[in-house]
Amino acid sequence: MAREKDADATVRGKPAHHPGTEAKGPTRAVVIVPVLTRQPRGDDDTNRPRLTRSADARHDEAVGLARAINLDPVHTAVVTVNDPRPATLLGSGKVEEFAQIVKDNDAELVIVDHPLTPVQQRNLEKELHAKVLDRTGLILEIFGERARTKEGTLQVELAHLNYQKGRLVRSWTHLERQRGGAGFLGGPGETQIESDRRQLQEKIIKLKHELETVRRTRDLHRAKRKKVPFPVVAIVGYTNAGKSTLFNRLTGADVLAQDMLFATLDPTLRRVRLPHGTPIILSDTVGFISDLPTHLIAAFRATLEEVVEADLVIHLRDISDPDTAAQAEDVERILADLGVDAGDTKRVIEVWNKVDLLDEGNRSRLLADAVGGSKGPPIAISAVTGEGIDALKAVIETRMAGELEDLTVTIEPAQFGLVDWLYRNGDIVSRADNEDGSATISLKATQSAREEIESRLRRKNNG
């Protein structure tokens, strides 16, 4: 039984292609979302069931993924699969039905929002008479289009080639590409047909060597940052949770932030000075997603090391999404794969974004439910309106530099060069200028700032 939806024929303002028109529009695609009735089991020690995402959420995400690379989803369907077929995943009746839908809609591409084996992909292409991409292949295509830096391009190409290894059967020769190849829709890996496994493996080895060079370069940059010990704060979260919007809000940067899955791919780092003067390095990372291909996790390990090495991790959640709990579980699973314990409240802050999209009743209920949880109360913010941002900055600064302390210092005339530093790194409560030319300043400063003040005063006195 399938629940079908008619998709909007316009993608990002571009008219869909219709037979007989001269201008070629976006690639016409049929999107199929199989929903398996068997609930997947968790992969942790408890083997507890994973949270099941709703069919509507999976459908919307699949359409969003398709539109992220300017596909025109001319027909979409959610299909319940009681007995997955080894040959085609879907039953023969459904395959015939979709073959007719592909023909009627003049579709060139079929997206199956589920991992497909090479055999299933090949058989579906034969039956549907169209190119078939599974969820992994589609995400790879998106990443291929989003990569901008050399590092990102190398990582995507490596993931493409690893995905290709089992899919070297020539298909649709008029396209002059391999099945599952890097760049059916374009991308960094589209260079030549890799028809020989030995050649493919040689290219994979070469890319791994290049990425090892990238990793060593990252290690050097990280070592330089540690010489000037600025703590690193990494923002992670499900794709479209608002990470880039929050990054821009905290840094004043202009990173691309759109209501689009995987709007940004390459990591961005910026130096930020918190309200009481504590400097940090803020890192915006690639968005996570359910069933993120293992090829991508492995290929992007160099980038994700920024998360592993971070002193503090902000787990940003879109609290307005009905499936926010399932999304959070997916993010926590990937963090666990990277060796980051999402339950470590000293290192991980849970931040609920987009509270401006909640009505007052839902907002109060969610915040009340969160109080006393095992992870501690979350910080509710809106990266768009700025609500809660000051509270978030305060928590980050407390974690990085310690609680605010009351401090009174007397600055001798020869030490007046420190006064400006005090104003920039603390909250001045009062200042009294003394008759001998000194100044007595009362302020609130972080523990880290107090230690720095004491150190600077000692150096002045010893000098």
From TrEMBL:
Region spans: Disordered: 1-59
Residues annotated to bind GTP: 237-244, 262-266, 284-287, 353-356
Hflx-type G domain boundaries: 231-404
Feature: compositional bias, Basic and acidic residues: 1-11, 40-59
Listed InterPro entries: G_HFLX_dom, GTP-bd, GTP-bd_M, GTPase_HflX, GTPase_HflX_N, GTPase_HflX_N_sf, HflX_C, P-loop_NTPase
Annotated localization: Cytoplasm
GO CC, one annotated term: cytoplasm
Residues annotated as signal peptide: none
Listed cofactors: Mg(2+)
CDD domains: HflX (cd01878)
Pfam families: GTP-bdg_M, GTP-bdg_N, HflX_C, MMR_HSR1
Binding site for Mg(2+): 244, 264
Coiled coil: 190-217
Any one Gene Ontology molecular-function term assigned to this protein's record: metal ion binding
Family classification: Belongs to the TRAFAC class OBG-HflX-like GTPase superfamily. HflX GTPase family.
Name used for this protein in its record: GTPase HflX
Source organism of this protein record: Rhizobium loti
